[in-house]
Every structure is written in structure tokens, then in C-alpha cells.
Write a structure and sequence with these properties.
Order of helices and strands: HHHHEEHEHEEEEEE
Distance between the termini: 32 Å
Radius of gyration: 44 Å
Oligomer: single chain
Number of helices: 6
Largest sheet: 7 strands, mixed
Number of domains: 3
Mean pLDDT: 76
Number of strands: 9
Helix content: 55-70%
Structural class: alpha+beta
């Protein structure tokens, strides 16, 4: 920057010398420079001051863009890490095929039990039929035994039917339960993927907005605008104003009640914060826009008009009695 200033200073001196030469040729009043560094120094510095300020502002914006790019990279890395973790969790969730395989195994085991019971029942029935076909005359004891066997056969058939019915009911209940669990897992997975997609889209859109609006680093979106809340260093009003400019923003003014409520929710309770509003009870002006403050909410109209500045305390504005060192709030834009 120093070399650029020297170069512009040289051009300005040459231009002045050329202008003086033309003045001599036209028989006009001539002011020769006997000591250009001393005679022209203050004038040149005053002329070059807007360009110096412009260069400083451009450098600040470039630093802000670099910070935003770094923020984009960090957020994208965090999103990718989160998506990778979600993929790992998704891979651990049993698939529909796994549930169907377990259900098929359960059905196979139930069918084996059913088959074994049917074989035992058939074997018992054959034995009973063999006994009933015996050629000899049954005795009284044998007749009683046959009656008992017939009753046992009926009981066995009834019991087997009940067992088969219960097995069928258990099978249907297990299948319904597994299908319900599978549906619940699919719903949770879909919700998880939608939340990840929404978070990623929000992050990308906010990052693009920060870049397009040249939002400085460390400023966060609160409501519809970007702010920086200083909670570690206390400064007086004028130092806080300068610090906000160094950060790439302005000491903050409030746009409306909605914005005041959103900011208050982010601030420490029972703590004072400088705002970018100054003036007297007759007129208050925004530091950023240089226009009349559009929103004011004073608790009690007290304080001293000798001191500039307005501070925010628990959601209400106050005029200071002196220039105490307070925390402060910066805004990224100069529209309010």
C-alpha cells in the first residue's frame, strides 16, 4: 500500500508541474514549488486519503470473503462427516431382507414342530387302529382300556388342534410385529435423511448469502440480518464503534421489535451492550446509516445528553450517565 501511495504521489507532483508549466505559457499567475515534499505533502495526503480509505475497505472485504470461504469449507467438512456417520448408522440397521430371513427361519422351525407333532399323532392313531382290529374277544378290562384310549384320542386331537391354532396365531403375530418394526425403521430413516438434506441446504444457502453480501467472519444471522455480539471485551462507546469497523461492520441499530426480541434472546441477562445509536431526546441517529433511528424502546428517558450513545439492558434502551466500558453489538450492513 505504501508503494502505491508513493506512485500516486509522484503522478500528482508531475501533474502539478505540468499544470504550472502551462500557466507560464499562458502568462498566468505562476506558483513554483521550491520544496515539493514539504509544500505539497499535506495537500497530497488529503487528496489521496479517499483512495487510501477505499484500499483499506477493499482489503477488509477481501479478508471477509476469505473468512467466509474458510467457514464454507469447515461447514462442508462437518456436513460430510455427519453424513458419513449417518451412513454408518444406516448400514447397521437391519434391512428388510434380514427381517424376512428371520421370519422364514421362525416359520421353518414352527413347521418342523408341527410336522413332528403330526407324525406322533399319526403313530398313535395307527397303534389304536391295530388294537381295535384284534380278532379275540375283549375282556372287561380291555373294553375299559379301549374306551379310555378313545377318550384319549379325542382329547389328543382337540389338544393338537388347539396347539396348531396357537402356533398359527403366534406366527401371524410375529410377522405383524416384524413388519411394524420394519415400517418404523424405514420411517425413522426417511426422517433422518430429510433432516440431513434440509440442514445441508440451509448451510449452503446461508454460506452463499454470506459470500454474496460480503458478511465478515464471526457474524451470525439473527432474525433477518447478521450481527456480532461481543461478550469478552468491554469498551467505551467510541472504541466500540471503531472496533466494529475493524471487524468489517458497524455498531448496531435495531430495526423493529421482532429484531430486538431475537437479539435479546442471544444476550446475557442483566448485562449492558452498546448500540449504534447516538443523539439526544430530540433526535437519535444511527451510526451505520447516518439517518434517524427507525426504532427506539427506552425504559426511562433519563441519562445525560452530554454523552453520546445508547445501551441495551434486558431488552430496553437507556441513555448513559457516563462513558463506561460495556460489551457491544455490531451489525454487518449499514442500511439501518
Amino acid at each position: 500500500m505504501l508503494r502505491l501511495a508513493q506512485f500516486l504521489l509522484s503522478l500528482l507532483v508531475l501533474d502539478l508541474q505540468g499544470s504550472l508549466g502551462d500557466t507560464q505559457d499562458n502568462n498566468r499567475t505562476v506558483c513554483l514549488l521550491n520544496d515539493p515534499p514539504n509544500q505539497c505533502g499535506q495537500f497530497c495526503l488529503t487528496t489521496l486519503q479517499p483512495m487510501t480509505d477505499l484500499i483499506s475497505e477493499i482489503n477488509a472485504k477481501l479478508n471477509g470473503i476469505q473468512g467466509a470461504q474458510q467457514s464454507i469449507q469447515i461447514k462442508l467438512a462437518a456436513v460430510e462427516s455427519g453424513l458419513e456417520d449417518q451412513r454408518t448408522q444406516i448400514d447397521r440397521i437391519p434391512t428388510k431382507e434380514d427381517f424376512e430371513s428371520r421370519l422364514n427361519e421362525t416359520e421353518a422351525q414352527l413347521m418342523e414342530v408341527k410336522s413332528e407333532m403330526k407324525d406322533q399323532f399319526d403313530l398313535l392313531q395307527i397303534r389304536l387302529e391295530d388294537q381295535s382290529e384284534a380278532p379275540r374277544e375283549p375282556s372287561l378290562n380291555e373294553t375299559e382300556n379301549q374306551l379310555v384310549a378313545v377318550n384319549f384320542e379325542d382329547l389328543l386331537k382337540t389338544g393338537l388342534t388347539e396347539v396348531l391354532t396357537k402356533i398359527q396365531e403366534y406366527q401371524e403375530a410375529a410377522q405383524t410385529k416384524l413388519e411394524g418394526q420394519l415400517q418404523t425403521l424405514e420411517t425413522k430413516l426417511q426422517t433422518l435423511l430429510e433432516n440431513q438434506r434440509a440442514y445441508f441446504q440451509k448451510t449452503v444457502l446461508e454460506t452463499l448469502e454470506r459470500v454474496s453480501l460480503s458478511i465478515p467472519p464471526n457474524f451470525e444471522k439473527i432474525g433477518h440480518r447478521y450481527f456480532y455480539i461481543e461478550n469478552s471485551t468491554r469498551l467505551d462507546f467510541y472504541s466500540a464503534e471503531t472496533r466494529c469497523r475493524q471487524l468489517g461492520g458497524y455498531l448496531a441499530a435495531i430495526q423493529n421489535q421482532e429484531e430486538l426480541s431475537a437479539l435479546t434472546a442471544k444476550l446475557d441477562k442483566d448485562t449492558k451492550y452498546w448500540l449504534g445509536i447516538k443523539g439526544s431526546e430530540w433526535e437519535f441517529v444511527s451510526v451505520a446509516s447516518k439517518a434517524t433511528a427507525t426504532f427506539l424502546k427506552f425504559a426511562i428517558q433519563e441519562g445525560s445528553d452530554y454523552f453520546d450513545g445508547v445501551y441495551l439492558f434486558n431488552g430496553e434502551m437507556y441513555k448513559p450517565y457516563d462513558l463506561d466500558d460495556l460489551y457491544f453489538i455490531c451489525q454487518a450492513d449499514n442500511k439501518v
